[in-house]
Amino acid sequence: MRFTSDNIASAHPAIFEALAAANAPDTGYDGDRLSRSLDATFSELFGTEVAALWVATGTAANGLALAALCPPHGGVVCHAEAHINCDEAGAPEFYTHGAKLVTVEGAGGKLTPATVAARLDAIPRDVHRVQPHALSITNATEYGRVYTPDETAALGDIAKARGLAFHVDGARFANAVATLDCHPGELTWRAGVDALSFGFVKNGGMSAEALILFRPDLAELVRVRRKRGGHLLSKGRFQAAQILALLEEGRWLANARAANAGAARIAQAAGNRLAEPVEANELFVRLSASEAARLRAQGGEFYDWGEGLARFVVSWDQPEAEIVALAAALAAL
Amino acid sequence: MRFTSDNIASAHPAIFEALAAANAPDTGYDGDRLSRSLDATFSELFGTEVAALWVATGTAANGLALAALCPPHGGVVCHAEAHINCDEAGAPEFYTHGAKLVTVEGAGGKLTPATVAARLDAIPRDVHRVQPHALSITNATEYGRVYTPDETAALGDIAKARGLAFHVDGARFANAVATLDCHPGELTWRAGVDALSFGFVKNGGMSAEALILFRPDLAELVRVRRKRGGHLLSKGRFQAAQILALLEEGRWLANARAANAGAARIAQAAGNRLAEPVEANELFVRLSASEAARLRAQGGEFYDWGEGLARFVVSWDQPEAEIVALAAALAAL
Amino acid sequence: MRFTSDNIASAHPAIFEALAAANAPDTGYDGDRLSRSLDATFSELFGTEVAALWVATGTAANGLALAALCPPHGGVVCHAEAHINCDEAGAPEFYTHGAKLVTVEGAGGKLTPATVAARLDAIPRDVHRVQPHALSITNATEYGRVYTPDETAALGDIAKARGLAFHVDGARFANAVATLDCHPGELTWRAGVDALSFGFVKNGGMSAEALILFRPDLAELVRVRRKRGGHLLSKGRFQAAQILALLEEGRWLANARAANAGAARIAQAAGNRLAEPVEANELFVRLSASEAARLRAQGGEFYDWGEGLARFVVSWDQPEAEIVALAAALAAL
Amino acid sequence: MRFTSDNIASAHPAIFEALAAANAPDTGYDGDRLSRSLDATFSELFGTEVAALWVATGTAANGLALAALCPPHGGVVCHAEAHINCDEAGAPEFYTHGAKLVTVEGAGGKLTPATVAARLDAIPRDVHRVQPHALSITNATEYGRVYTPDETAALGDIAKARGLAFHVDGARFANAVATLDCHPGELTWRAGVDALSFGFVKNGGMSAEALILFRPDLAELVRVRRKRGGHLLSKGRFQAAQILALLEEGRWLANARAANAGAARIAQAAGNRLAEPVEANELFVRLSASEAARLRAQGGEFYDWGEGLARFVVSWDQPEAEIVALAAALAAL
Question: Counting beta carbons within 10 angstroms of the beta carbon of residue D308, is it exposed (0 to 12), middle (13 to 18) or buried (19 or more)?
Fold first, then answer.
């Protein structure tokens, strides 16, 4: 019963086929046929012209996106528990050359126009204070919650009104789209989003993530900075192939739906132990220390998430038996 | 007849087997069994205790190595045509936070104790001048030349005498070892090398390179900086698997020998057109513009390398027919 | 009645005499007789061997100190309202190359061993989280409070226990020493402090602040970084002269005592309107909007400090008439 | 006979009067009356609208200027012996966050359109190479040579044609203007210059230099970065006062003319020992080791400048007796 992270899951079989198919010589870096096709493929997916770059990690995608949207002397408004603030070892500061993460609290890892506005209003507009230049949200959030298209658009509105660029960390973007059953454009450019870190690795991928720029004018700069960050792989076709394999036949959505469905089943069993509504593939379950120990004794693997709380993440390939077993174990506590 | 770069070559079949074998869930990042085995595997290969980290590019390996060896206010002595100086879009400056590359000229892309000493002697020891803290060489060099163990050790001696850390960019380290037929330790730690960017991708790999630290005390710092650079992949086992597949059964050496042998055959045909001795898998051939055009008309693909010079790179998997054809074409010019 | 800041105050007459006296040619940068005397002068003042560097601003002193104590990938624990976090436009991030300010809340702008420990305990010790490397406090604080020698030493103890370097932003260090009537060593090295930004400009200076390193082994590095930050003035003797002029005849303490005494007189008049005990030269006074307007109509100049609060700063040269007038005006509200 | 540097010279008496006059309380930072007057004063001097900021060093002026004109991933074309490349401890790299200085050789420390073009042409326009974004020259140069208005304009033309911003390091700008007897606008904005580091300290100043932006749209950004660099002094009026004092009554030009005239007199005596034409206040004189020793025995103070060369700098306040004595000593060698 491994529910520690969707990072530990396997890669989808289609990835392997795609890698094998890509193994003929082709131009290096991102000059190959597959890499060159990404802009068009993602433009079609999103219904608008985008630039799409592969990178090896979500941390790199986030760092490159934020560096394109915020100058070294600027600030990035984000949730206090955002991955970029807590789990990337300062990569945003590294990529932006020292921009400041300006944090906002809020339930479920979510920002609202009101909390963002309050934070901005507290910053005097003078040369002594770091002035925010960007807003970054995570969808689905670090607490497995989603921003609806309307919620995203409301944040996009305040970003625009306050002169902030708008970034979405979409490590689990597929899970959000699957839950909301909406067009991916509604969670991004139609809502004012400038850049999306579009996660594939947690969702059946192997080692390729996508950075989507809804402002293609930023692409040249970001491609330079990708190289400068050591993220321009020599045989880029193997990166592009992975992403394309998951886009084909809607695998990215099927994988996310599978993970979400597993989480929903477990959520039912967890009942009012849930600290957060389950809107994607993560569950935050109230467990006493002894209950957590009991679950672990039954083979449960998961992270403690602060006092009396445990996090369970369901992967795209989670065996049904494990889902059933965890649900039963939780119900039986 | 594609001889533009060993970057365009295919990945070795063993890579694909290894990736498939690694596709069971395991701990994320570098906590998996394969990643954790790298230190021991490379320690055995080099005959001394090392720390070994996978990264996705040689540029990242170089950047992380230099950042560990040189502070932001320091300098890195390197050849004026070194990859780190010319072909990494400023990644060394990015990773080191602005250290200065202090360049030295020299035939064949090679440094010597004399040229290094002259450069160092020209720098006054005061607070106004950037003081070098590291020395970096490329072996095999950007001109397909190798540093022998003795030459490397002589540079290691001056590095030590002048208080410089010593880094080797080994994008084609395997080719150098194959040519010199020496123990890899002789080109590294026995010669005073502190860190090696050990290239696999140009040598039959897919998307994993190794950074070898001969000072394992640096490993903790470099692991943090790897994460901070966005280079800690979530499913690291797929990185480790690639490297291990090329180390097994001596594939890394076999691949390099194949590429070197192809280059040697072409070199014979090129005769006194060669601008540099061929000591690895690259050839620098004097061609007039019309000769270059004629070769291209015959299907030759290669880079112009300044006025009247062309670069040909032979890959590990270069078809014999292409080698024969290029040799014949050069001989017939 | 100008009480907006001690930044607006005049420079002490002795400064002008010292500048004039320093106007003979002497060696450039910090090679002159006066600059070279600083180490010894401050070593005597603090009763231990220190290195002392002039800089032009407290922000530079803080940035250089933090960069010497915390690597780019590290964190600096400080109060959420610390000057380094709120009022330096990201200079600490600039000088440290992106270190993260890890903030702690607390009354009076003060940290305690308990609040620091709680913050540290919440940070998992892994590669994904920025690990704190330094602790920074402001004494006197941004709320005009002081840390006693014991309080400072208790923070020094936890810093040492947790492997953190310890920095004091002493923009108003003189005011703290004057209030506590203690040896300056008790608030610094005897309490485990590694570096002090020793402010002079707010205390009768003109354009020179001192950075005191209680670890003289850091001096060489900091001198290099001072130059690299553009803070090594060409005619450094004019910087040193200013500082020495304020150290002579105990002017730094006399000035601070004068400012503190003025604040104490106003505090008495402000009575229970005070939001913070007045322990240095700043007062935080509860004022309704209409009361603030009334004061301003009477010629009062001061900053609003959030909802219903106003900040008054008394300068070393504040005319007695202004002190009396403000006290009367507050009492009459 | 102190001719080591114009850094060691005294400050002009008018500076002291101006400092005393500025010693009434005024708004902090650059909000005071004097600082606020700089834009207008320099706009009048240059005959166009400029933004003018005081800083404490030429290194800071250069760093801030380059950071405004070149992104972290860009390059700055400059002479190999430029102050920014050799004598600022990497400050340009620090302020630009790692931009690369792309160096060009040339007699007299001078660049020409031809040498700049050749350097630019050698850089492939791809993502692997650092692309230059700015051009920086020093006028007068590090070898005491000047760029005429025509020469400057020709460089401005190539800068514009190649998309480079154009910066002038004018540590000795006054000396160049004095020699050329031209309008300062001819050496700057009329020639396409975007930013000028306008030196005052070597020319009778104390601790204030000016950064002149001929693109006032950059001012807001540079003011933020000045604060972030720790260069926004609290009592900025003392900075502005110094600069204004030297601008008044044409002191800046009178001082430069005095220094230039002294150099010219010595040049006559030095005759064909001169390695460079003397066009400002520096002399580069061929001296054998024994000749140098003899001069030093006579009380001569100067720097060796490589093999068989010595540098003499004449200051604005150089006593006539020293000038006469050095001239005689050189003639007598």
Answer: middle
3-state secondary structure chain C: CECCCCCCCCCCHHHHHHHHHCCCCCCCECCCHHHHHHHHHHHHHHCCCCEEEEECCHHHHHHHHHHHHCCCCEEEEEECCCHHHHCCCCHHHHHHCCCEEEEECCHHHCCCHHHHHHHHHCCCCCCCCCEEEEEEEECCCCCCCCCCHHHHHHHHHHHHHCCCEEEEEECCHHHHHHHHCCCHHHHCHHHCCCEEEECCHHHCCCCCEEEEECCHHHHHHHHHHHHHCCCCCCECHHHHHHHHHHHHHHHHHHHHHHHHHHHHHHHHHHHHHECCCCCCCEEEEECCHHHHHHHHHCCCECEECCCCEEEEECCCCCCHHHHHHHHHHHHHC
- Give the count of beta carbons closer than 10 Å to the beta carbon of residue D172: 29
Confidence tier at B324 by pLDDT (50, 70, 90)? very high
pLDDT at C177: 98
Q: What distance in Å separates residue A295's CA from the closest CA in chain C?
A: 23
Q: How far apart are CA B28 and CA A6, in angstroms?
A: 9
- Return the residue of D nearest to A126 by Cα: D224
Confidence at residue C283, expressed as pLDDT on a 0 to 100 scale: 98
Give the tens place of pLDDT for each residue, A89-136. 999 999 999 999 999 999 999 999 999 999 999 999 999 999 999 999
Contact flag A127-D73 (C-beta cutoff 8 Å): no
ipTM for the whole complex: 0.97
**D63 to C25: CB separation less than 8 angstroms, yes or no:** no
What integer pLDDT is reported at residue C307 of this predicted model? Answer: 86
Q: Please answer yes or no on whether A127 and D225 come within 8 Å at the CB atom.
A: no
The DSSP secondary-structure symbol of B111 reads -
Q: Do B229 and A233 touch (CB under 8 A)?
A: no
Which among C116, C120, C131, C134 has a CA at the least distance from the CA of C68? C134
For residue C205, the chain D residue with the least C-alpha distance is D235
First-to-last CA distance in chain B?
16
Which residues from C are below 8 Å from B when comparing CB atoms? 29, 71-73, 97, 127-128, 131, 221, 223-225, 227-228, 232
Q: What percent of chain D has pLDDT over 70?
A: 100
CA–CA dist D170, D210 (Å, integer): 10
Query: Which chains contact C through at least 3 pairs of Cβ atoms less than 8 Å apart?
Result: A, B, D
Only one residue has tokens 């002269």, namely C241
Q: How far is CA C286 from CA A184, A262, A283, C261, in A?
A: 51, 56, 46, 21
Does the beta-carbon distance from D127 to A29 stay under 8 Å? yes
- Nearest Cα of chain A lies from the Cα of C104 at a distance, in angstroms, of 13
**What is the C-alpha separation between A305 and A147, in angstroms, rounded?**
22
- CB–CB contact A223 D72 (8 Å): no
Q: With contact defined as beta carbons under 8 Å apart, do D274 and C47 qualify?
A: no
CA–CA gap between residue C129 and residue B224 (Å, rounded): 9
Q: Do D235 and C4 touch (CB under 8 A)?
A: no
Among A7, A26, A55, the residue with its CB nearest the CB of B235 is A7
**Range B159-179 average pLDDT:** 98
Cβ within 8 Å, pair B86-D129:
yes
Cβ(C285)–Cβ(C273) under 8 Å?
yes
At D306, is the pLDDT very low, low, confident or very high (cuts 50, 70, 90)?
A: confident
CB contact under 8 A, A230 and B231: yes
Tell me the nearest-neighbour CA distance from C8 into chain D, angstroms: 5
Give A167→chain B minimum CA distance, Å.
Answer: 17
**What is the rounded average pLDDT for all residues in chain B?**
97
> In chain D, whose CA is at the least distance from the CA of A230?
D128
Cβ contacts of C228 on chain B, cutoff 8 Å: 73
